[in-house]
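DM from R.C. (forwarded with permission)

"hey, sorry to bug you on a friday — could you get me a structure for this? deadline for the figure draft is monday and I only need the backbone to look sensible"
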Amino acid sequence: MSALMQQSTPASAGFFASGGDMFQEFPMWVSHPEKEARIVANEAEFVALGDGWVKPERVDLVAREHTPDYVEYPKWVGDQLVQNAEEESALLGSDNPDTRAALLQIAEEKGIRIDKRWSDDKIRAALEAA
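My reply, with the result:
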């Protein structure tokens, strides 16, 4: 198999269509240890190829945020690059800075873990739930 083809071979068989609602297995690349990889349009074509042909391994999809090497910052928020949650919170702002400061202080006093990027309503809901 050529190096270019190895690079373009997907890590999982098939693809998700319609925003992730439906998994479509074919067309797919199949490989053989002694022959050049090829695309098959359906299961019948795959079976007709004979012995030795294999489908790519199916892997579970993992959200980018759950990968071991994921780093949240720095990231773009609109057209600004932010380095941490505090910068992001300051950039997004609040409807009322005094109310926000009071909510954050209450959360800190009660030992409730919140994210400073949360909206005032979300912080209030977390405080009420605790």
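R.C.: lifesaver. The mean pLDDT is 79.
me: no worries. DSSP finds five helices and six strands in the chain.
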